[in-house]
Structure formats: structure tokens, C-alpha cells
Design goal:
Largest sheet: 7 strands, mixed
Distance between the termini: 66 Å
Oligomer: single chain
CATH superfamily of the largest domain: FAD/NAD(P)-binding domain
Shape: globular
Number of helices: 15
CATH class of the largest domain: Alpha Beta
Helix content: 25-40%
Number of domains: 3
CATH topology of the largest domain: FAD/NAD(P)-binding domain
Number of strands: 24
Length: about 475
């Protein structure tokens, strides 16, 4: 059977690309090595982690947030197996939804490990060892990424875990040590901290959340410290020794110095992710790689005509929504339309409590580029709705070009930041100014008023501070 398009990988990039291609009339197939669709994101990443983040947040609120509102209940009791069932039910609903959408759009699916046998040919190796070859005009690599290993440390997904194992723990660890102060580590640390773990974070750099706005990161570290996190910054893990009673972790200063040891029941290695390109047969057909990622042109084509790549295996942030937009753009290009992704306007969100959302340029990036800018900031302590919800941690920061007033970036730390960021994304997509946002009526009382007030603050005319 011959196809217009065969996609290897059914994560957010792959399945969205398949659906859009089918909508545009291309005969499409998708190859997935798991028994279920959705890739890392839906099965063992974004979706299950958000289910656990929400459930653990409700547990925290029930234990510490009700009484001050005049709601008297007993101390909550944790039923971890039932909480895990909620997580799995959420995953099941999502992956079944993807299966339905693929079938609805007449996308053929092949369960097995996909690889490129030759240009125009995809080999599917099934669980029983049997193989099948699919012919196609175009091949899309959408295989995503997996957890980056820590040299010298063995992952067993029991006592030393990646994010996958951290979402499957059978009991709350007494002591959880996290290697890496990035998004994944802090999110999963938040889950288990709320449920009762003592959480310690070891980070090689001298700050948390590398690459994000520095002011946001510093404020967030203060908040997490208040929540009970312990940080060892400018430090590196050099050894993890596991035993029956837990793990002994050797930590050294990143700049050199005396080592010390920390004890942990569970060690979570969360130092980033790496593109999954092994075993795809890329080298054999001549697909160029750079630092493990597929090199692509502006139309997502690799160095070999007819072979394309999207998502975590190519340049840009490793984010599900970035992969989705690339999948749509590529499908439209292959169908003869004009697909496009604006890489300057891709939101990034940390789903902790409070949330962090970031968009566009940071102050550090603007300074490095020599771009003159103005800043508008507004704290949630001055927002009526935030006070009513006892959610006053954080602020909104808007960065605008000092000459044109065009908004160049927005950074939010606060409750619901991941939702608040999108009006700024739309504004930036249309090249809007801080004045455009400042003069747009916002409903009162809402958290989004803080976004408007920050925009007003660019010209030093915020009302409520």
C-alpha cells in the first residue's frame, strides 16, 4: 500500500500532522511503537504529570487552605492508589481520544517500531519480530525525545528514576532528591512535596529555571523555599550509590571543592531531554544530524529530499505545542499551502503553584542584543481577584520596545499564568503595542486585569499601584 505521507511517531507533533494532512486530502499513515497513541506527552509526560499536579494541589488546599475561608473539615487522608487511578484515567481518556480522531480522519495506523529502509520506504517491526514495509512519497520523523542520562548514574526507575518513574511511585518518598532545577524537576518535586516528601534540588548552575527571566526565577525560588524546598545551586551530582535503605548521593561544587553526601529515598534525574533518533536508519539514508537533532530547512525537510522532521528531534524548544504547530505547518506545506510557525511567540509554562508563563524575549536577552526597552510590572498583591482567592504571589512583567512600544516579551508568575499569557501571545502575533493592550477593556474583577495594568505600567500609568 502506498501513501502520500507516513509519520513515525504519534506524539503531539505526529498525530496532529497526520490529522491535518488527512483533512487536506493526503493519504496518510502513522507508525507508533507503543500500544497507545499520544507519545511521551500523553502517556508518560505532560498529561499524567498535570493530573498529579492538580490532584496534589487539591490535597494541599484541603489540608491548609480551607480553614481560613471558613470551611472546617478534618485533616485529609491520602489514597495514593486512587490518585494514581485518576492519573491513569486521564491518560486513557486522552489516548483513546487520539485513536478516535485518527480513525475519524481515516488515518491508517501501524503499531510497531518504525525506521527508514530507504527513501520512500518505512519499515515497521512489530512486537513479534515480523516486519512490514510501507511505501510513501513523504516520510516525517516525529519521534520526540527521552530523558537525558546523568553520566555515571544508573537509572532503575525504582530508586533512581526519570520523570517516567517519578510518576509511578508506589508510596510517597520520605526524602526526594532532584538532580536539575528545570521545569520537569520542579513540577514533579511540587507533586511529591505536597503529598509529604522532603524535597532537595541540586542544580549545576547558580540559578533555577535556566533560560527564563532572571527576576521570575529568583522570585520563584523564594516561593519554593517558603513551600519547603531545599536548594543546592552551583552544585553537581558525581555519584549515586543505592542500597536497601535508599541512596547516598555525592554532591560537589560545580566550580570545584570539597564533596558532601546527601541521603535520599528516591533520586529523580531531571537534567533535560535528548532527541530520540537512534534506530531510525537516518545515517544509512544520509540524513544529517547536528548534536543529535535532525537538520532541517525552513520547510522542515532534512538533508534528504522527501524526509522531514518536526518536534523534539529538530531545533527549537522541546514543547508539545511547538511540535503541534510544526505538524500543522508541514502538512499544509506538503498539501501545497503556506504553513508557518512563528518561533518568536511560543509560550513556555511551568505548571507549579503558582504557575510561571513566559513569552518572547527576556530582559537578559534584550540587554545582550542592545535593544532599548521599557518595563511595565504589576503585582498580584494589588489585584482584587487575587486577594479574594488568596493567590497574591507573583507579578506580571511586560517588555516593550522603547521606541516603537511594540511588545517584545511577557513574563508572569502567579495563579493561572499559563492561561493569562495567551492574550499577550495574540497581541504579539499581530505586532501590538503595550498601549493597545492597556486600552483594551478587561473584566473586573479578574486576574487578567494584572496583565492590563502591567501594560499600562510600561508608560508608568498603572492605576492600582
Amino acid at each position: 500500500m502506498s501513501y502520500d505521507l507516513v509519520i513515525i511517531g504519534s506524539g503531539p507533533g505526529g498525530y496532529v500532522c497526520a490529522i491535518r494532512a488527512a483533512q487536506l486530502g493526503l493519504k496518510t499513515a502513522i507508525v507508533e511503537k507503543r500500544a497507545t497513541f499520544g507519545g511521551t506527552c500523553l502517556n508518560i509526560g505532560c498529561i499524567p504529570s498535570k493530573a498529579m499536579l492538580h490532584a496534589s494541589e487539591m490535597f494541599e488546599v484541603a489540608g491548609h487552605g480551607f480553614e481560613v475561608l471558613g470551611i472546617k473539615v478534618g485533616a485529609p487522608k491520602l489514597d495514593l492508589p486512587l490518585m494514581m487511578k485518576h492519573k491513569q484515567d486521564t491518560v486513557d481518556a486522552n489516548v483513546q481520544g487520539v485513536a478516535f480522531l485518527l480513525k475519524k480522519n481515516k488515518v491508517d495506523s501501524f503499531i510497531g517500531t518504525g525506521s527508514i529502509a530507504a527513501v520512500g520506504k518505512v519499515l515497521v517491526t512489530k512486537a513479534d519480530g515480523s516486519t512490514e514495509t510501507i511505501e510513501t512519497k513523504h516520510i516525517v520523523i516525529a519521534t520526540g525525545s527521552d530523558s537525558a542520562p546523568l553520566p555515571g548514574v544508573t537509572i532503575d526507575e525504582k530508586s533512581v528514576v526519570t520523570s517516567t518513574g517519578a510518576l509511578e511511585l508506589s508510596k510517597v518518598p520520605g526524602k526526594l532528591l532532584i538532580v536539575g532545577a528545570g521545569v520537569i524537576g520542579l513540577e514533579l518535586g511540587s507533586v511529591w512535596k505536597r503529598l509529604g516528601a522532603d524535597v532537595t534540588v541540586v542544580e549545576y548552575l547558580d540559578r533555577i529555571l535556566p533560560g527564563m527571566d532572571d527576576e521570575i526565577a529568583k522570585q520563584f525560588q523564594r516561593i519554593l523555599t517558603k513551600q519547603g524546598f531545599t536548594f543546592h545551586l552551583g552544585s553537581k551530582v558525581t555519584k549515586v550509590e543505592t542500597g536497601k535503605s535508599g541512596s547516598t548521593v555525592t554532591v560537589e561544587p560545580a566550580a570545584g571543592g570539597a564533596a558532601k553526601t546527601l541521603q535520599a529515598d528516591i533520586v529523580l534525574v531531571a537534567i533535560g531531554r535528548r532527541p530520540y533518533t537512534e534506530g531510525l536508519g537516518l545515517e544509512a539514508v544520509g540524513v544529517a544530524l547536528e548534536r543529535g537533532k535532525v537538520v532541517i530547512d525552513d520547510h522542515f525537510q532534512s538533508s534528504v529530499p522527501g524526509i522531514y522532521a518536526i518536534g523534539d528531534v529538530v531545533r527549537g524548544p522541546m514543547l508539545a505545542h511547538k511540535a503541534e504547530d510544526e505538524g500543522v505547518a508541514l502538512a499544509e506545506i506538503l498539501a501545497g499551502h503556506a504553513g508557518h510557525v512563528n518561533y518568536g511567540i511560543i509560550p513556555g509554562v511551568v505548571y507549579t503553584e503558582p504557575e510561571i508563563a513566559t513569552l518572547g524575549k527576556t530582559e537578559e536577552e534584550l540587554k545582550a542584543a542592545g535593544i532599548a526597552y521599557s518595563v511595565g510590572k504589576f503585582p498580584f498583591t494589588a489585584n482584587g481577584r487575587a486577594r479574594a482567592m488568596r493567590a497574591t504571589d507573583g507579578f506580571v512583567k511586560i517588555l516593550a520596545d522603547a521606541t516603537t512600544d511594540r511588545v517584545l516579551g511577557c513574563h508572569i508568575i502567579g495563579k493561572g499564568a499559563g492561561d493569562l499569557i495567551h492574550e499577550v501571545a495574540v497581541l504579539m502575533e499581530f505586532g501590538g503595542s503595550s498601549e493597545d493592550l492597556a486600552r483594551t477593556c478587561h473584566a473586573h474583577p479578574t486576574m487578567s486585569e494584572a496583565v492590563k495594568e502591567a501594560a499600562m505600567g510600561v508608560e508608568k500609568r498603572s492605576i492600582h499601584i
